Amino acid sequence: LGGATFFHGRRRATCARLCARRTPPPISGPAQGGMVNVQVAFNYRGKHWKRGFNVDAGSTVRQLKEAMVAPSGSEEDVDSIELQRFGQRALDGELILGEAAFDFLLLFPDEGAAKARGDAARAAVVAQQQRQQQQQRTPE
Predict the structure, then answer these.
(1) Verdict on whether the full-model pTM lies above 0.70
(2) DSSP conformation letters of 90-109
(3) Confidence of residue 11 (pLDDT cuts 50, 70, 90)
């Protein structure tokens, strides 16, 4: 997963920092049912391993990515991480409601930023649709 991008300067350092941390910090977020375990699978230079992260139920994929690069990661580092499920990108706004598993992919900074903007645009459209549906259900 993402092997070629690991060899480019800062990206390699980001991967090393992510992979070396033994005890990831829990992320803060809406406490909706306590903590859940999220497994992230890494694949680098033919080696495969998983790291567990404990997050609050109801946290977003974006918050998980922020926790993965905490405390010294930048916004660019967060955007450069793609988490996938079943080979499909998990959108930044997707909620983590229970135990979950993701595959890690490291993107080039410009690609990651573009995908993050796309996630934000999709989230805005979904929020608008949800508001419209709620208004249609609510009698005046």
Answers:
(1) no
(2) PPTT-EE-S-EEEEEEEPPH
(3) low
